[in-house]
Each structure stands twice: as C-alpha cells, then as structure tokens.
C-alpha cells in the first residue's frame, strides 16, 4: 500500500536525521570521539568509588592531619606574646639591697592615670639611687612626692607567677611598646592574603604536591626563625613568613581530597575539616597550659610537622589538575590505582577514552576559554548588589569570627580554659548548622546567627565588670553562633555567584574578608583599657553583616545560575515577602532538593529542541503512517542522549566546595 504525502514524509525523515546528527549515534553504534569534550572526573567517581578506602585513607591520613599545623601556628602566637599581670620599672641599684615590695614602695610613684591606688608600671622616681644609698641606710629611705618622675629607663621587672616566659618579657614590650604584640599579630595576618595568592599560583602551575611541600617548608622555616629570634622585628618578620602559609598549608590537601571524593561526600569532608581544625585549637590550649616557655612552645608546635615530609611517598597529585594540564598518562595511573584500592574495576570505556584523548592532546592546542574578570561581577545592577552584599557579609563574618578567637584568652579567670572553651563550642555549632542549612536554607541561618551573636556581644556592656563568668558565657554563645555562620557563608556565596564567575567571585569576597583580619587585632587591643569595648565593636559589626545578608536571595530549592546573565536574573525580583519567608518551600516542579547543572548547556541544545518541536508538529497528523523504525525513534535512548548533553545534575545539599576555575580545577581561598 503506497505511503501518502511522500514529500511530507521525506521532510520528516530529514528532520529526524538532523536531530540524530546533533544527538550522536544510536544505541550500539560506536561513539565518535568528541575532541572538544574534556574528561569529567565526576562522571567516573561513581564507577571507581566516591568515598572508598582510597579516599578515606587520603582524608583521614593526610587532609585532616594537615589541619593541625594550621591551627597551631595561627594561634600559638597569642601565648608567645603573653603579658604578665604585673610589671614595674627596673632599678639596678636596688636589686641586691631590697625586696620586691620595698622596691615598689620606694622607687615607684602611684599610678595617676588609672587612679587605682597601685604603683605605676611605666614611671619611676628620677633620683640618683647610688647617691641616696651612700648618704642613708636603705631602711631609713622614704618616697617623697616632690621627687621628679621619669619613664622607665633600664627595663622592667615582671611578676612571673603565671607568665614567666614570653616575647613581652624578653623584648620589654610594655608601656610605650605594649602595642607591639598586636603589630605582630597583624603581621601574621598580612601574610595570609599574600600567601593565598602566591601559593595559589604555584598550586595551579606546579601542582598540588609541589605547592604543599613548598608551603610546609615555608611554615617550618618561619617557625624556626620565630624560635631563634633575638629582637622583636626579627620575630615579627618570621610571623609574616608563617602567615604566608595560613590557611594554604591545610587547604592544599583539603582541595586534593575534595577533588577525589564524590559530590555527595564533599559536605562531610568540609565539616570534618572544620572539626579537626577546631580540635587542633583545643589541643593547642592543652600544650600552652603545659609549656609556658615561648621558645619551647614554638618548637613543640612546629618541629613534629617535619614528619609531614613523609607524605612525599604517599600523597598523590590531583588527577583533576593532571587532566587540566594534559598529563593524562599520570592521571590514568592514579585513577586506576584508586579503583584497585577501592575494589572496583576501572571502566575499559573510560580508559579507552582517556587514551584517545592523550593521543589527541599531543596533536592539538588547548581550546581557548572565554575570559571573565572582576569587572563582570559589577557590570549589571543585580550582580553588583549581590557582590557588594556577599563581600560585606563575608568581611564582617570572617573578621568577627577571628576577632572573637583572638579575644578568648582575655576573658574569664583562666586564659587557657577560656581559649579551650572558645574552641569546644564550635563543634556542636558545625553539626547543628549542617542540619539547618538543608532544612531552613542559607539566608536566615546565616543572618540570625550573625545578628544573635552580635547581640550576645553587645549586651555584655550591661553586665557589671566583676561578673567575669557571665561575660564569658555570653562570649561563648556569640562564638558558637559566629562559628555556625562562618560555615554557612562559604557555600552560600558559592551558590549565589554564577558558575561562570564563581571562582573569581569567591576569591574577591574572601580576599576582602582576609583584609579585615589585619585590622581586628587593633580592635582587640582596645580591651587593655576597656575589656568589653572590643566585644561591643565586634557585636555591632556582626549585626550589620547579618542584616546585610537578609537582602540576599535564598538558594535552597532553586536552580543555581550558570552564566552571568542568569546570575543577573537570579534574585532580581526580590521582595520584602521573600525576606520574611523563613523556611524556603519546595517548588512543585522541583525535587526535594535543588539541583545545579555544572556544565553550561552546549550551544546546539536550543536548536535541537527547536528541531524536535518542528518534527513533532509536522508528524502529529501522520504518526500512524510512519514506518516502525521512525515511530520507535523516541525511546528511552533519547532520555539517555539528553542526559549526555545535560551532563550531570548535582544535588545542592550543602555542597561546600572551594572555588574553581572554568575547567573545574579547585583553587585556594582565604577561608580559615
């Protein structure tokens, strides 16, 4: 029986042929090598193990232990620069003839600046003690208010009951020089942003292994110079060197771990990293309690990490970085070894594809990528507003968090216990925050934790000065809340920035946030005169950052923006009702969690859909007359083809990655 409307049927066949050419070969046909398609490691991990024995050894054997030197060297300086509670001018002529109390009574005028009735710590009577001792017996001498007063000229004596060794004692960093320890702390934080940039370049150009061991050597060199310093400025310079490696010394193995575990486990690795970092701070408080000599403390918190050079024999290079650099033979060996240790067989098809790609890469140049820069973050109004709000919130969050960490030893009756407790409260806050992010979204948990944490700081001003324990409790509440917000700000910012500029956006926001760490030591320095003033300042800063975050759009249960254009549209229709919505609702068209297409759709996707629509309308009246081969063309195979063009959809459940380049390679970020 002849087929009616042959011309229409031929047209329909032609349309389907065009679709087939765009989609690729049918099931069972050999797939042509796509020379422009880069190998996606995330597609391979489910086949060889997303969190198998190999990844567990890497995470628990290398990544998490790498948090310890970072935690030690970021905060051991607080105890190296301890200031004794009491000190006074040294009078060499009286050292061998009088007791401590006699010297204080005879040689020191009363403290007129604070009207406390105690002796002055920075002034002494300007008299000739040798001459006075020649003319009278020491027991007959009495202080005279008419004697002239001068600043301490020959150093200080210190009460070493609690603090008997510190740079303050060795270098006489009191009175006019009491700000020097604060300058040293700022010097440590100056190195951070510089180090992230320098080691970031090395990380991308020379590889993770080279960057990590260079970073570790730099840390140990700076710590060694710290230990042997004989003057303050040498010591401060050594702290800049140490600061270059913080947080890079733990972020590099952290990045390797994130690149080798499946997407569903990256949240776990991130939370575990934060927990180990906090545990390192808790361990540091124990070490500083047991060892009060600042030189030995410097050795104890650095020398054991020379053992980390043994990682040279076991730490792998990042396969993702090797693939990005075109060193596919080395990446293949690591991936095959991972599959073997995890008890999986390496997929032959992937191996064949990799080998073919190795051959192609030897004959072709790298495909040029579209250039994007910082200016793209501020080119359009909505993206500009979100960039400013994210950066302000990040600045307030990171600055206040570290400021509270620095201020812990100043509160309570025992600085070691206070510092220990300030670290302990972080761990439950991480676990609670991890749960809340998936139930209540990002915006409200971030903003509420910052606002309530700021309120807890501010209301300390209403507590009497002698209410030491109450002030410490409010401080710990604030620290726990800020720790929770500190964990949220990173993934929240990553979800708000479009994929196309995500690495640049996170880099800019975190870098500006890192600059706040240079200023915050001078805020905590104000506590020498008024213990609660730094808490009030940090409280208002935290509340401002929390209020800023309320204007940002929620990302939970939303498809995340891929391009700059989508980023401009995302949250553009924000209203006050959106702000007042505490718990984001699951949209009817979405699944229980949001999904993000990690790869921007290929340019031919739109034309493919258009051709399908054209084909559908042309064939609606003739479906019964088509041959069975054409009738059956729309089968589950099309779903498979569609998934190939769409790549992978990734669940958004608290995906806490570090910043990436356009090809998925992860980079360093100033986030500690």
UniProtKB/TrEMBL annotation:
Residues 123-557 form the Major facilitator superfamily (MFS) profile domain. Keywords: Membrane, Transmembrane, Transmembrane helix. It is a multi-pass membrane protein. The keyword ATP-binding does not apply. Pfam families: Sugar_tr. Signal peptide: none annotated. Its main location: membrane. It is found in: Membrane. The chain crosses the membrane at residues 57-79, 179-199, 211-228, 240-261, 268-291, 387-404, 416-437, 444-463, 475-493, 505-527, 533-552. GO terms for molecular function: transmembrane transporter activity. Gene3D superfamilies: MFS general substrate transporter like domains. GO terms for cellular component: membrane. Residues 612-643 are annotated as: Disordered. CDD domains: MFS_SLC22. The keyword Membrane applies. This is Major facilitator superfamily (MFS) profile domain-containing protein. It comes from Stomoxys calcitrans.
